[in-house]
Amino acid sequence: MRIDVVSIFPEYLAPLELSLVGKARAAGILDLHVHDLRDWTTDRHRTVDDTPFGGGAGMVMRPDVWGTALDGVLGSIAAAPAAPRPPAHLVIPTPSGAPFTQRIAEQLAGEQHLVFACGRYEGIDARVADHYREAGVVVSELSIGDYVLSGGEAAALVVIEAVVRLLPGVVGNPESLVEESHGDAGLLEYPVYTKPPEWAGLAVPDILMTGHHARIARWRRDVALERTVERRPDLARALDPTLLDAADLDTLSVLGWEVRDGAVQPHDDGL
Length: 271
Ligand code: SAM
Known about the structure:
This protein is α/β, with parallel strands linked by helices. 30% of the residues lie in helices and 19% in strands. Helix 3 packs across helix 5 (152-164) and helix 6 packs across helix 8. The radius of gyration is 23 Å and the shape is elongated. S-adenosylmethionine is lined by residues 93-96, 118-120, 122-123, 143-145, 147-152, 155.
């Protein structure tokens, strides 16, 4: 996979040298380039922003500067590129975008080339996303959560880390990706423990010491269901009833939930 990140603060992306992403780069699994948007400006002050049409507070990032930068990074849509490049997927982090989820991370992990356009100020002129969509580029405007950051760099770091750990060969033991929160089961992960068996007066649950794999798996599933119901009832409601076995239904019932009218919901919901 190739990833390009365009920002007015390229130093902000330094953590991409570290940890799993850094290792993926060193191993040749990931070819990652960070660019300074101001390298594509033409004026003495290297200007990237201007006042908003229609008035209002703050500054907006200019589409012409972004267009020149992205044409260069995407392999130039207007002019034929010197060498054909794989189709790129343009990711524009924005708090007004679609929520970024593990499903989207999985989709992005299947791409060959991702380009991140990191906004600042009041964001990037809306014509940039429109222009590249019209030109046939897949454009995803993504939000990493319902809050407002000062820039897209932290959001790009989040999306890149979530995507890169899904690339084959990046996580040492791919099994560790299977039972994670937000996986196919739709559940939050069960709590995890390691040595020492007792710490700060707190003991590891006895069941985990038994070595009884089937009973441990059942306990983990029950605790995952309990956590999901308590912490993320929105995820519990979205569970696929066809993926729940009889023991799951018993656990849900103890928690005050059931499958009714083909959906997972609290016993007393809407009654
Ligand atoms: N005026 C914009 C709005 O209200 O939607 C907020 C702009 S924000 C101050 C500046 C930049 O930070 C955005 O262009 C985007 O790149 C990034 N950003 C802020 N919050 C974000 C979020 N929740 N998810 C993704 N990117 C975000």
